[in-house]
């Protein structure tokens, strides 16, 4: 038991004081999808491919609902010219509507 405690304590702290210290996600992690509508023809293939119906074509552009997005990257795979998986992971909001992101046409 003493040996176990010695080994556990000997490893030191494995966590950081987030959010007081910045956290850099691993390079392979996928955060919020980012949509660039420059040149987008509003074909809707991204919305059709989304397994959780989180993308909606609206008059202003494309709406992403982060309350249902599962960060699978399928939209970026279908349309790599206009959608990339970003690194943004601090996505909390105080309301359901706050989780809706609109990517507006320019
Ligand atoms: S982002 Fe790509 S797939 Fe989605 S509507 Fe625009 S062109 Fe079509
Ligand atoms: S990452 Fe996946 S779940 Fe999220 S919007 Fe794209 S296709 Fe839909």
What's the number of helices? 3
From the 3D coordinates, which CATH architecture would you assign?
Answer: 2-Layer Sandwich
The whole-number mean of residue pLDDT values reads: 94
**Widest sheet, order of strands:** 2-3-5
Kindly report the CATH topology. Answer: Alpha-Beta Plaits
Radius of gyration: 19 Å
What compounds are bound to the protein? Answer: iron/sulfur cluster
| CATH level 1 class label | Alpha Beta
Describe this structure in words.
With 106 residues, the protein is an alpha+beta fold. The chain has one domain: Alpha-Beta Plaits. It contains three helices and five strands. It has helices at 2-10, 45-49, 74-78, and strands at 33-35, 55-58, 61-65, 83-85, 100-104. The strands form two sheets. Strands 2-3-5 form a three-stranded antiparallel sheet. The relative contact order is 0.23.
Please sum up the structure shown:
The chain is α+β, with helices and mostly antiparallel strands and 106 residues long.
Tell me the layout of helices and strands.
Blueprint: H1 2-10, E1 33-35, H2 45-49, E2 55-58, E3 61-65, H3 74-78, E4 83-85, E5 100-104
Antiparallel strand pairs: 1-4, 2-3, 3-5
The protein binds iron/sulfur cluster (SF4) (2 copies).
Residues 33, 50-52, 54-55, 64, 69-75 line the site of one iron/sulfur cluster.
């Amino acid at each position: 038991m003493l040996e176990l405690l010695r080994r556990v304590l000997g490893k030191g702290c494995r966590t950081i004081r987030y959010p007081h210290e910045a956290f850099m996600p691993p390079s392979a992690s996928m955060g919020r999808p980012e949509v660039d509508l420059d040149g987008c023809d509003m074909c809707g293939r991204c919305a059709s491919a989304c397994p959780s119906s989180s993308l909606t074509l609206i008059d202003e552009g494309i709406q992403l609902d982060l309350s249902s997005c599962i960060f699978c990257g399928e939209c970026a795979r279908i349309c790599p010219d206009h959608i990339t998986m970003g690194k943004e992971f601090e996505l909390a909001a105080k309301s359901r509507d706050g989780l809706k992101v609109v990517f507006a046409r320019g």
